[in-house]
Amino acid sequence: MNDPMKEFFGEGSNPFPLTDIQQFVDLYTTKHSAIISTKNSFDFLQEDTHAHQGYEFLLPMNNMPPILLDNRKLGIDSNRIIPFNSWQEHGPAKQQKGSQLMSFQVRKDYLSTIAYNMFGISEVSFAGEFRVIGNELKDLLRAFLSEGRNQQPGSDFIMESISTHIIVLLLRQLKSNLPTLVTESNYCGDYHIRNAIDFMVDNYSTPFSIEDIARIAALSPYHFIRIFKSQTGVTPHKYLLHIKIEKAKQFLRSKDLTITEIADRCGFNNVNHFSTTFKKHVGVTPSKYRKDFLY
Length: 295
Description:
Blueprint: H1 3-9, E1 11-12, E2 25-29, E3 33-38, E4 42-44, E5 50-51, E6 55-60, E7 67-69, E8 72-74, E9 80-84, E10 90-92, E11 96-99, E12 101-106, H2 108-119, E13 131-132, H3 135-150, H4 155-173, H5 190-203, H6 210-216, H7 221-232, H8 236-252, H9 259-265, H10 271-282, H11 286-294
Antiparallel strand pairs: 1-5, 2-3, 3-12, 4-11, 6-9, 6-12, 7-8, 7-10, 9-13
Helix pairs in contact: 2-4, 3-4, 6-7, 9-10
């Protein structure tokens, strides 16, 4: 294995057979980064760990086995991202078949250079936990993959640019030893609040915390709540509840789903909670709303 690939994939037992890796994954690289995306489902055949000099950001795309991270076992949360620091031991905690994942790998020296230019700190240590990511970051990862697959003149330059953009967002949004990027006094919020709203619209049925969405807006939770309310007139909680109720109305206007299924699709804990909340905001129960609309 050449040196750049060794920095990305590291030492120890790797879940992919590195001698013939492109049979199993799509692999696209720049001078400083790489993206790995499983072509089909992949089988983790054993519990084991490995480590590498570069940073890795793992995005499970479906159910996967728990992860071992520095001898801690972490349950998988699909469509959330978890960072692995330089030389941090990690790997599958047990066997499992049919897993799918995407992994963004970055050379340590490149990430350190960007972090130093952003924060004046070159040694970055990410918290070992799954975090929600926004649509902007998801779109950039897809764009990197698309450019790698299609390979047009200038693709290397575009992929390098996208890679840098991804790293900046990861440094902003993931919990680490870096300082908070912005404060209320120097914050220009329209763009970031729109990102937060877009995230809520796309993920209304998925549990997430105020800390998760505040990071999408690159703010502390306290400042995020204040700025969000000043721009929308309501708290993030009330705005999210409005999204859920409006989505429930859409589902109720057809017979495709039961009331219980709609409650689950819209992120309510149970059907009783859904019915009580719906009536409080709409004035009628979900079943009455459906009956009035359909009959």
